[in-house]
User: Fold this.
Amino acid sequence: MKEILKKLRKYEIRVRKAINSQMQGDFHSIFKGSGLEFDDVRAYQYGDDVRTIDWNVTAKGHGTFVKTFIEEKEQTVMFLLDVSASQEIGSAKRQKIDTGKEIAALLALSAVKESSAVGLLCFSDQKEKYIKPGKGMKHSYELLSSIFKLKPASKKTNLDQAIKTTLGILKRRAVIFLISDFIDENYMHSLKGMARKHDLVVVQLFDKRESQMPNLGIVPLYEKESGRTLWVNSSSSHFRNVLNKTYGKNTSDLETFCRRNDVNYLSIETGDDYVPKLVRLFRHRNKSNAQRPR
Assistant:
């Protein structure tokens, strides 16, 4: 843990320095979302921001109404970390799971220092580890220890179930970081529900070997989640087309979903220096939060 914490603190210093030098925004607002919670509606008055108009209420034909908001007293930041076997791809100590753990730990440590209540759900096709949102450095060390010491009981993935579990746990709006390779099916409906209710950040992890497999002829491929070994012709054009189309479509669909549902999206490869990408994400969130209606 000492070695891990030393590495995370070094990354955190890099993030904070980059933010201070490249942005005029507040680091605090990265985890605060809009900082506002819906309260009620009232009749539109001259000078009101048109972006606050509640079109559903207005459409009833009794006049134009705008939403009113109150300041949130406390912001919850929740991390959903995929720990299924499909994450165990990449070079030694630089697998997708290693990158995901580091990102979750780094952001969790930063969020705790900004006085947010931070929680964690590690999942496969079941709830592997849940830590209720809490504050303070003691809580953050418990969270970090859980991330790096966890030995998942299952190898499979069920994103839909993980999302539904989180929606059942969180009763108030929160900032949610969902970290996964998103190699799964039938989860988009639940993800849309999460995007509507919460401030969602999607972090997709990938390894170049998943889309750039070398021509090796007929080779055995071990599927970690099912435990099966399949023999395939890695040199065949059919296999390579299926591989590229599957990976490309999965990524494209997720990016399109995020764009249409106002979800922050970040793609990180296992060999990446992910700090600059996190800084760009923070810059975008600060800019977006500054433009939200108050």
The chain has nine helices and twelve strands. The first helix runs from residue 2 to 22.
